[in-house]
């Protein structure tokens, strides 16, 4: 599957039906998810691999990994409503993905690769830390999205675990008006897609 085809399929993944600001439930744009997962596939980190999606939401990264030939995909999230949407999407696409209701700290199994778009920490400072720690504990390679201004924190945390940020790409992310505290129709922020191993 070419990257553009992957992006087209990912555009079918629904947004959150009733997003929770405390969980920072923002959709991962299909274009960004497609590029990250396609790059992971080209690096040999998806095809035939066991992939986990921590904080999977409605399933964007899980669906992408399954479409690109992962041998098994497990998506974890604390929101049953998000998981319900993810399950419906996977079923409609004929994909076998195991979606589980679980806090990230309770995940006990490992994988070859972790994909994730954790909370950025806008509502709760360093909300991405438990996700990063679990991801690095669980897999040899981690593909993750963070606020660009937190990249030094991500690098230091990776180094404290004997790992390194191998790649970092900055994207402009237009956050749609989602919650009552949003003042603008769209807020553009810089996010960093990192590869840790």
* Element string (H = helix, E = strand): HHEHEHEEHEHEE
Low-confidence stretches: none
Query: What is the tally of helical segments?
Result: 6
Biggest beta sheet attributes: 7 strands, mixed
Query: How helical, in percent, are the residues?
Result: 25-40%
Strand content: 15-25%
The SS-based structural class is alpha/beta
**Total E-strand runs:** 7
Rg to the nearest angstrom?
15 Å
Rounded mean pLDDT is 92
Based on Cα principal axes, name the global outline.
globular
Instruction: Compute the separation of the termini in Å.
Output: 26 Å
Adjacency order of strands in the biggest sheet: 3-2-1-4-5-7-6
Would you write up a description of this structure?
This protein is of the alpha/beta class and 197 residues long. The protein has six helices and seven strands; from the N terminus they run ααβαβαββαβαββ. The protein has a seven-stranded mixed sheet. α1 (3-10) packs across α2 and α2 (30-42) crosses α3 (60-67). The longest helix has 13 residues, at 30-42. The chain starts with a helix and ends with a strand.
């Amino acid at each position: 599957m070419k990257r553009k085809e992957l992006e087209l399929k990912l555009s079918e993944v629904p947004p959150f039906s009733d997003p929770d600001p405390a969980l920072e439930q923002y959709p991962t744009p299909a274009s960004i998810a497609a590029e990250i997962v396609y790059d992971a596939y080209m690096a040999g980190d998806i095809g035939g691999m066991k992939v986990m999606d921590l904080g999977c939401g409605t399933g964007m990264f899980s669906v992408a990994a399954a479409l690109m030939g992962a041998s098994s995909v497990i998506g974890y999230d604390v929101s049953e409503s998000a998981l319900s949407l993810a399950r419906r999407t996977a079923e409609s696409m004929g994909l076998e993905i195991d979606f589980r209701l679980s806090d990230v700290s309770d995940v006990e199994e490992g994988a070859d690769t972790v994909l994730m778009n954790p909370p950025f920490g806008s509502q709760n400072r360093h909300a991405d830390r438990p996700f990063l720690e679990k991801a690095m504990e669980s897999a040899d390679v981690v593909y993750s999205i963070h606020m660009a201004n937190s990249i030094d924190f991500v690098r230091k945390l990776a180094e404290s675990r004997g790992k390194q940020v191998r790649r970092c790409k900055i994207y402009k992310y237009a956050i749609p008006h989602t919650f009552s505290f949003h003042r603008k129709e769209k807020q553009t922020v810089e996010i960093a897609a990192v590869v840790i191993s």
